[in-house]
Amino acid sequence: MKIGIVGYGAYIPKFRIKTQEIAQFQNQDPHKIINGLKIEEKSVPGIDEDTATISHQAALNSIARAKIDKKKIGAIYIGSESHPYAVKPTSTIVGQALNIGNNYTAADLEFACKAGTAALQAACGLTQSKIIEYGLAIGTDTAQAEPGDVLEFSASAGGAAFLVGSNENEFLASIEKTLSFSSDTPDFWRRNLQKFPQHMGRFTGEPSYFKHVIETTKKFLDENNIQPKDLDHVVFHQPNGKFPTIAAKKLGFSLKQIETGLLAPKIGNCYSGSSLVGLTSILDVAKPNQKILLVSYGSGSGCDAFIFTTTKHLTQKQKLAPTTNNYIDNKKYLTYLQYQNRICTK
Amino acid sequence: MKVAVIGIGCTKFGEHWDKNIQDLLSASQLEAIEDAKISPNDIDAIFSGNMCGGIFSGQQHIGAIAAEILNLNVASSVVEAACASGGVAIRSGLQAILSGLAEVVLVNGVEKMTDTKTPQATTGLMLAASEELELFQGATFPALNAMIAKKYMNDYGLTREQLAMVSVKNHKHATLNPLAQFKKEITIENVINSTMVSDPLTLLDCAPISDGSASLILCSEKFAKKINKPAIYIVGSGQASDSLALQNRKSLTEMKATQIAAKTAYKIANVTPDDIDVTELHDGFSIVEILSLEDLGYFKKGEAGKATAEGKTFLDGEKPINPSGGLKGKGHPVGATGVSQAVEIVKQLRGECKSNQVKNAKTGLTHNIGGCGTTAVVHIFKKEK
Predict the structure, then answer these.
(1) Are B17 and A200 inside 8 Å of each other by CB?
(2) B3-117+209-232 falls under which CATH superfamily?
(3) Which of B31, B56, B196, B369 lies at 20 to 30 Å from A339 by C-alpha?
(4) Is the confidence at residue A346, as pLDDT, over 60?
């Protein structure tokens, strides 16, 4: 039985801080940071925004596009590493706020930056096996970074929601295949009760992000007999603007193939939402019958890869909710002190 | 004095994310044994240079690991003298052979540094300086060497461009060395404009954090003749010490330990600085190469910067320095550096280097220091006639 995306939506908080502003407080050369990380500014959550509120708004947008009876949603999975509670699900807060009734299963997932795609796979499984009619998968983060850490330039806020269904007449994009690749790679972690994550510097690059993203993509394309040129759009996890560009080049993709989904230069890395928000910006402009490759990456480490094919129904649904670019363009800049006040009071 | 080097082995230097100390040691040890064409059972003792295994990798007692890899039960010890650990391990090997306690010795230098974050690595390396007089005051090795650079520039008119040329030269040489960490040529502008570490030293004035291992098989002249293998001989050795803290030195612009170690080694080998055809010198920071060129007697005081800028220390210059790329270009796994310098010189004297071969090299010198010139070891190598 086929499954597909029947609704999608994103939400990115309107607050931004420029790399230049952070660099000034870290006593670093802003041009070197911008050229190195390829991030010009990043999104910052408002004082009253967290993973629950961002997930809720993204879910509302996905329902607005799907135009389905929301009471038929049988599962909510939210992937994040900034769930507001250590014990108490974000997914039920969102379910209650969406007013979908009580006949749904729910769970919060965590796998660093790829918990959102893990949520999507879980929703796919329940839908494909006909246990539920629609599944809601969300990837959202309000990412944390210790003041002075290099992560301060990238850790951002945002999320994306996807409604998965099995009625082909409702598909905006069919979900063709998925494949995962996992290993015990300690490149980035946050222990219990620690406020900020720790990372292993350069170890997060070659043996972690690149090894996993490149091996997953190669295996996935080989198994499905797909050439890089066969794909219209490609989106990778975006810890910064540089890594996905290098990965794309190594794998034989052009800049044109990745540019629509590459949002890190404008919003930074919204962790569990990163590759999924990139996917929403592609769906906002994609034409029918286009092929999209998504490969997420989560530290710890693993990748989930998906291939989607857009349908003729997509174009008429694109404008039924704010586009991802609407959110990116609606922005208000913060000073470093305003930014720190928001982050530290959370 | 005559001790033969009959086997050499060295891993690539750089980021070995999937290898631990044992993996690195295994690679260089087995390569050296194979090169020497001996049996592991011929080895009477093992000396391994390692500076910070406990802090960088949570592993000490590396001597035991070195012996276990070869399934040997011989005496196997770790030698620690900060970044000069490798050079001092070679000297320990020489002493064992010259005293008659051993006939064949395996000497290793090994360090695994990339398991730590940069701040931890910097703190670990600072254990080689004075805790009370330097570390507690917030000094780091780049800061101490930056003070030396400032003073030298003030006293001798060294320009920023001349200083940068040390790294430009070493990176150029590294592109020719298959075992080097960096394979990219850089310009004077790249050096000056790279990230500031401690004024005037930028990132490209400082040797990197690296993983790597190097090994030598040393033996008595008698054993070398018995196995009838052409050998390179160590014909001179000197080691000296200076104050741990920089503040207790009479001069910031010369390293007394290097001067004494070099003088001793020249005397034992019966050579002068002019006789040295190829040198591997300890360029932990660009300024250290400038000072060392003078302390080894290659150039007069205050003239090393100008000589470097004129190309005299390049591969095709009159005094080729660091054909391997040095610590800056080849990499600097601290405990391995001193032994890897000897590996490079043996290759040069054997004529086995390819594009970085110094022509007609017959006499070579290694110079390995620990701390800010606190420990210095100099060895002189000659090709058998």
Answers:
(1) no
(2) Thiolase/Chalcone synthase (3.40.47.10)
(3) B196
(4) no
